[in-house]
Amino acid sequence: xxxxxxxxxxxxxxxxxxxxxxxxxxxxxxxxxxxxxxxxxxxxxxxxxxxxxxxxxxxxxxxxxxxxxxxxxxxxxxxxxxxxxxxxxxxxxxxxxxxxxxxxxxxxxxxxxxxxxxxxxxxxxxxxxxxxxxxxxxxxxxxxxxxxxxxxxxxxxxxxxxxxxxxxxxxxxxxxxxxxxxxxxxxxxxxxxxxxxxxxxxxxxxxxxxxxxxxxxxxxxxxxxxxxxxxxxxxxxx
Length: 238
Hints:
Arc Repressor Mutant, subunit A, five-stranded antiparallel beta sheet, four-stranded antiparallel beta sheet, 9 helices, 12 strands, globular
């Protein structure tokens, strides 16, 4: 049986690496869709249905468990179309390292190593995302200077959004915005951002700035329960 994260990756046409599984699960947490399989179908063929339909038909649409119930064998080493590299040991051992670079190939010297280090994999004007195998927390190493560093992104959001009602509301519009909405807006400004920053990393940044943007709150939007923030957006940024 696939895990929920693996199934979420498959329906999004993503390779089921550790990082992609986290991104896929975050995507569906902010989505009105559910990842399921038919009770009389093949669990290896996940599908997407509306969350409301899945809840109303629990015997027809089955949910995936958080952890896979069978060992899924992945390539020992591979470079994929999205530039992501997976380095793995035997099927019984955990993933050693997951890294993303802007290059589409890895040199033999790097490929032969059991662990990809920042100095071995990072080049000028690139951003490397490494998964710490001890804490399983993503850490971004920023070497760019094109308005996409953490400081640049947080400064832009603080300039554009505010949690308190402005004195002159003619210059602002009130809205309810999710983390995914933030991420899509930033990608619209910087199309290459999705290759250097994950939705999960942005969520962590926003949580640390809760004093500015406020905590996440649940709200029903168009009949769907979503988690987001009630903010004021500057019309000058439109």
